[in-house]
Amino acid sequence: MGIFLTRNADIHHMVQKNFGKTDNYLVANKHNDCLKGLFKLLLSRLYYIFDGGRMFVLYFDNQGIHEKEISFTDNAPFLLIPWHEVRNFKVKDKRNKVYIDVDHLGKIYSYEIYFNGKLPQGNRERLMQLSEHNFYRGSL
After folding, report:
1. Residue-by-residue DSSP string for 55-90
2. Could you say which of 16, 70, 88, 101 would form a disulfide bridge with 55 (CB–CB 3.0 to 4.6 Å)?
3. CA torsion 9→31→23→21, rounded to 10°?
4. Helix (H, G, I), strand (E, B), or coil: what is residue 38?
């Protein structure tokens, strides 16, 4: 499943196959903050283009955040970021997109959640549901 060949139905099926439930996931782009993005741009334009265009499926449950990059291979498993290892979790609404920042053991991962387009279809509804359930973070 490559980025250009992936359909929304393929992502839905992959989530259902791995977790059974299909309303706890978001399709996200990797987000680089301005300083990090500028550094990578100066380092290598080609690296910046590929790094900034990486897409992920983020699945949220009581265990944590399960992350999988949408790439040219389906064989890679979802990686778990357990809630007890997350120091800070921020959701910033910017009207037409949302930024999710996760501080996992001192390393910050940032994602952009878009609402328009082929792959992000349904992101807005799933984000609202995840927000209502506090992203399944339990008593954190």
Report:
1. EEEEEE-SSEEEEEEE-S-S-PPPEEEEGGGEEEEE
2. 70
3. 80
4. helix
Q: Mind listing the pLDDT tens digit for each residue in 83-98?
A: 999 999 999 998 889 9
Alpha helices in the chain (DSSP H): 8-19, 34-43, 45-52, 123-132
Separation of first and last alpha carbons in the chain: 35
Return the SS3 of 5: coil
CA distances to 42, 88, 97 from 107, in Å: 22, 10, 23
Q: Which residue has the tokens 């387009």?
A: 117
Mean per-residue pLDDT of the chain: 83
The whole-model pTM stands at 0.83
Q: Can you list the domains of the chain with their CATH numbers?
A: 8-136 (2.30.29.30)
Cβ pair 107, 85 in contact under 8 A: no
Structure tokens at 43: 């380092």
Q: Which two tokens stand for residue 105?
A: 């053991």
